[in-house]
Specification:
The protein is α+β, with helices and mostly antiparallel strands. The chain is built from 16 helices and 35 strands. The protein folds into 3 domains: 142 residues, Sandwich (Jelly Rolls); 399 residues, ADP-ribosylglycohydrolase fold; 129 residues, Galactose-binding domain-like (Jelly Rolls, Sandwich), CATH 2.60.120.260. The strands form 9 sheets. Strands 1, 25, 27, 28, 30, 33 and 35 form a 7-stranded antiparallel beta sheet that branches. A 5-stranded antiparallel beta sheet has the order 15-18-23-20-21, with no helix packed on it. The radius of gyration is 25 Å and the shape is globular. The protein starts with 5 loop residues before the first helix and ends in a 7-residue tail after the last strand.
Length: 732
């Protein structure tokens, strides 16, 4: 069991005793719908030595990028020539001059490298000859390989949470709160990364920089990679960082098939939601590249026009802007034209969060070309015998002196690893995925059952983040003085946000866009809200909605609302609705921003098992009314289900009208699988498809028992639970 609080452990033990005498139910065969067989593409053969060389090249390339990148070079001054002097006293400008790349032949001379030319506030070379010290750009990437080693190729969210707990991960940004959240609340991803549940760094870079290398162990298996990228990137954060992490992980997977980075970007974006600022930046950079605009001008354009992050202030503080840094990655990949050194050099000199961007580009190009093809000077600087030090504040290097790394894995994690050891571990995980996904290993030959990558249908949204400064593209219906306007004061990530305001507490209003859909496909709608803590808010698609009544929401923080739904019509009104208040309400307005609707059909398969109240075995004394089981603290329900290979997706349809969030602990075959939060809802919000919490839990093929126990004192009602296969690429 995880290291939950004493209270939570006690409740779990009580619940276990309550169920120990219950009779075992049979398989709910009537509730099972057969999944279509996943049809793999052609069989692809890869040579083991070639693959290993690519993996070593990726790890070394990432480290070279880490040490070469100019972090904290963030300021754009339009009065300065873009290719002129870029270090002026204490001020540095983006798009550094070529002289800052390996000055006097010194490799890895970026802000956190060897610092031949100092441009940032750091004074700790984390990459030097033959050595790499722990950093947030690499330590979780390496940890992820240990997670697959420890829990196997078909792991689930609770396994990732267990690993972060086991290895006592120290992190920054959105990762800083993960271990305390797991230990204190028992939450599992995606809840560990969400602002609603306490992650104030959800918007920072960690979801991207710590998970992009995932794709390296899924050659020709992008579908499986996508399923895992969805979970892994949700551990530390949310929003644009999660999107960029999934995009980069997908590129790493596709790199085995598409070595041309321009084509690679194109193919990856075909599989991603394009109603996204990062896609807009990609199109901007691609246009600059195809028009012959020099890369420094493109870099300046990204910083000047594409920062769009309210949380960090002005363009001068763009270092942590996800979309601006995404632009630097695209500049490096396009203008680098498949050359390792040129790609890393350009990315490094772009600045912003340069160690992160250059590490991503270096790792990807290293994967494409392989270690043997790297320039000799880099292979002499770092190679398989070089050592990664997991710096924990102890005597990690032979001198006992280090300048101050701040991200590491603590307990139970090796103090040091050679890059050969990291590569061999990665290779073993890759081999496990090959055999788990229908392939085979014949001596030195990997025969991979390739997974086809089809473009997803793209949706058309207009002014989704209100960055026009008006409400163009939005429709509105309201009562009692309710109106829709824009606001600058309460934007989420951009310069503007939407505002529903009423002059009467009973006033209501809904803002929406009419979106073309494909009937039968699955979608995820999301929107960020701020304020309105004392009133019900609904995110809706047609008649389907998910209700929130969330006291965590305040005037100081945005939180994300989500709705998963299956389209029944070819067009639906999708948006946000502020419900009428009560005598206890005081909020008269709702801020909202960053509206998104994305096709997620490729992340699920067509099979599921549905369990209604009549199918549940419940703790003694619990009542079933209106086709719902009323759960009480320490009590719960269970059912038996037929699992499929890999993790399962559980959708828990519930009703919580207590005004407070509830916590329910899930168990698979008697083992705790973590806590799922169930936010409060409006009083009439039961029985709707949207009112469901999501949990990605490992079960595996065969018969299993699921148990859900209420660990809080806010009584809730469970209507049904649906069990989906984790991904179409997971065979039954």
């Amino acid at each position: 069991m995880k290291k939950f609080s004493k209270r939570m452990v006690t409740l779990s033990m009580c619940a276990s005793m309550l169920f120990s005498a219950a009779s075992c139910g049979g398989k709910n065969s009537d509730n099972w719908k057969e999944r279509p067989s996943f049809t793999a593409g052609k069989t692809v053969e890869l040579n083991k030595s070639v693959v290993r060389d690519k993996l070593l090249g990726s790890w070394i390339g990432s480290a070279i990028g880490l040490g070469s990148g100019y972090e904290y070079v963030t300021t754009l001054n339009n009065s300065k020539p873009l290719d002129g002097v870029v270090v002026d006293g204490t001020v540095a400008y983006v798009a550094l001059d070529d002289k800052y790349w390996e000055p006097n032949g010194v490799i890895c001379s970026g802000s956190i490298g060897l610092n031949a030319l100092k441009t940032g506030p750091l004074n700790d070379p984390r990459v030097e000859y033959g050595k790499v010290y722990s950093d947030d750009d690499m330590h979780v990437d390496i940890l992820n390989q240990f997670i697959f080693r420890d829990y196997g190729p078909d792991l689930g969210a609770q396994d990732i949470a267990d690993a972060w707990d086991k290895y006592a991960v120290a992190d920054v940004g959105g990762g800083e709160t993960v271990v305390p959240t797991i230990r204190n609340s028992g939450y599992i991803p995606p809840y560990t990364g969400q602002r609603m549940y306490g992650n104030t760094g959800y918007w920072v870079t960690e979801s991207w920089i710590e998970n992009e290398s995932l794709g390296a162990i899924f050659p020709y298996m992008p579908g499986t990679l996508e399923a895992y990228a969805e979970i892994f990137t949700s551990v530390q954060g949310d929003a644009l960082g999660m999107y960029l992490g999934k995009l980069c992980a997908l590129m790493y997977s596709l790199a085995y098939e598409y070595p041309d980075t321009k084509v690679l970007l194109e193919k990856a974006f075909e599989r991603m939601d394009q109603n996204n600022e990062i896609y807009e930046i990609y199109k901007y950079v691609l246009g600059c590249y195809e028009d012959g605009t020099d890369w420094r001008t493109a870099c300046a354009g990204v910083v000047k026009n594409r920062v769009n992050c309210k949380l960090i202030g002005s363009a001068d503080e763009a270092g942590f802007s996800i979309n601006a840094n995404a632009g630097m990655i695209f500049i490096g990949l396009l203008y680098g034209e498949n050359d390792f050194e040129k790609s890393v050099k350009i990315t490094s000199l772009c600045g912003l969060d340069g160690d992160c961007t250059a590490a991503t580009v270096g790792g990807l190009l290293g994967l494409i070309v392989g270690f043997d093809a790297l320039p000799q000077k880099y292979k002499d600087f770092l190679n398989g015998n070089s050592v990664y030090y997991n710096y924990t504040g102890k005597n990690s290097d032979e001198t006992g002196v280090y300048w101050g790394a701040f991200a590491y894995c603590g307990e139970n994690f090796p103090t040091s690893l050679t890059f050969d050891q990291i590569t061999d571990l990665t290779l073993k995980n890759l081999e496990a995925q090959v055999t788990a996904r229908g392939g085979e290993i014949d001596g030195e030959i990997y025969r991979i059952a390739s997974q086809p990558l089809e473009a997803i249908p793209q949706l058309s949204l207009t002014n989704k983040s209100f960055e026009r400064g008006d409400i163009y593209g939005w429709s509105f219906e309201g009562t009692k003085g309710a109106a829709l306007t824009t606001t600058e004061a309460k934007a989420h990530l951009g310069n503007y946000g939407g505002l529903i305001a009423s002059d009467d507490i009973e006033g209501e209003g809904k803002a929406y866009q009419t979106v073309a859909l494909v009937p039968g496909r699955r979608y995820r709608a999301s929107i960020w809200i701020n304020g309105c803590a004392d009133r019900e808010v609904r995110i809706f698609a047609g008649e389907k909605y998910r209700s929130y009544f969330n006291p965590i929401t305040s005037n100081t923080a945005y939180v994300k609302l989500e709705l998963y739904f299956t389209a029944e019509k070819n067009r639906e009104n999708i948006g946000i609705k502020l419900m009428p208040g009560t005598d206890d309400s005081f909020s008269l307005q709702l801020n909202f921003d960053d509206f998104s609707v994305e096709d997620v059909t490729h992340l699920t398969d067509g099979s599921y098992q549905k369990f209604s109240a009549a199918d549940f075995y419940v703790s003694p004394g619990l009542k079933t009314e209106n086709d719902r089981v009323a759960l009480e603290c320490t009590k719960g329900l269970r059912f038996d289900f037929e699992g499929m290979k890999g993790y399962q997706t559980f959708k828990i349809y519930y009703r919580n009208t207590t005004g407070m969030p509830a916590q329910a602990e899930a168990f698979i075959d008697g083992k705790s699988a973590g806590v799922v939060p169930l936010p409060a809802q409006g009083a009439d919000a039961d029985g709707n498809e949207g009112n469901a919490a999501i949990a990605w839990l490992y079960a595996g093929a065969g018969d299993h028992r699921f148990k859900l126990v209420l660990n809080s004192f806010e009584n809730i009602e469970i209507e049904r639970i649906e069990v989906y296969g984790g991904n179409a690429c997971f065979e039954k």
